[in-house]
Design goal:
Shape: globular
Distance between the termini: 22 Å
Oligomer: single chain
Radius of gyration: 15 Å
Helix content: 40-55%
Strand content: 15-25%
């Protein structure tokens, strides 16, 4: 099976801002140019945990959109690359993230870890039970989607250069 670029939107949409990654994925779907959509797979990973392993193992390039508890100001967007994400294995980056960290660990142990891994995360403001995003998160989710487009464009550019 050919490796590919996969974008995973993670989060629980029943806990307000905890669903930021899923909402960012939906925003990305709206703004992503068709030529890029044809080259990537967009996956609403919700809180599927180990069920995401096939997606991770199939990815050569994995872009993760998620709410992350990094002690920042609510709505602050931060990005992490492969090596930085691995530093989080000893801590929790998101309320559901422990399960996804296990997915990454299993993929690595099985020798199927993506060559490129990038996380675009946002500090949630409110993770109480409820549907939708808090006011602070709406602009942050749009920022996450815009940055995702930039990361995907960069990756596709690098892949095309390697083919030449």
């Amino acid at each position: 099976m050919a490796k590919k670029i996969i974008v995973l939107g993670l989060g629980n949409i029943l806990n307000l801002d905890e669903g930021a990654g899923v909402y960012a994925l939906k925003e990305l779907e709206k703004i992503l140019p068709e030529k890029i959509k044809a080259e990537v797979e967009l996956v609403d990973g919700g809180v599927l945990g180990m069920d995401l392993l096939p997606y991770v193992e199939r990815a050569s390039h994995l872009l993760v959109l998620d709410a992350v508890d990094i002690g920042a100001q609510p709505g602050e967007v931060r990005e992490y690359t492969k090596d930085e994400i691995e530093l989080f294995y000893h801590g929790r980056i998101s309320w559901h993230q422990l399960g996804f960290q296990e997915v990454l660990t299993v993929a690595k142990v099985r020798g199927n870890f993506p060559s490129q891994l990038h996380l675009i995360g946002v500090q949630p403001a409110d993770i109480r039970t409820g549907v939708g995003l808090s006011r602070r998160m709406k602009p942050a989710v749009q920022e996450m989607a815009k940055r995702a487009v930039e990361v995907l464009e960069m990756w596709l550019g690098e892949i095309k250069k390697k083919k030449i």
